[in-house]
Amino acid sequence: MVERKIFNKHNIIFRKNINFDFVIAVYLMILNFDFVIAVYLMILNFDFVIAVYLMILNFDFVIAVYLMILNFDFVIIIYLIISL
Hints:
By secondary structure, this protein is of the alpha+beta class. It has helices spanning 20-30, 35-43, 48-56, 62-69, 74-83; strands at 2-7, 11-16. Helix content is 56%, strand content 14%.
């Protein structure tokens, strides 16, 4: 486990798993998400904590706001809003 800091509006410490890229891609594909988003998040080295957070929210509209707060790509926000 390697710790890294991400600076946006908040100073958040994420724990990055070495095999996380593969895990998040498979996680999203199992949930029938768009493959492009799975690859996009895999490139961004998305954190497993976020995946658990999204799973708890049951992919609600709050996700779009949450991603917007984290300064994520606007395309993903639009995709999530349209797909709801």
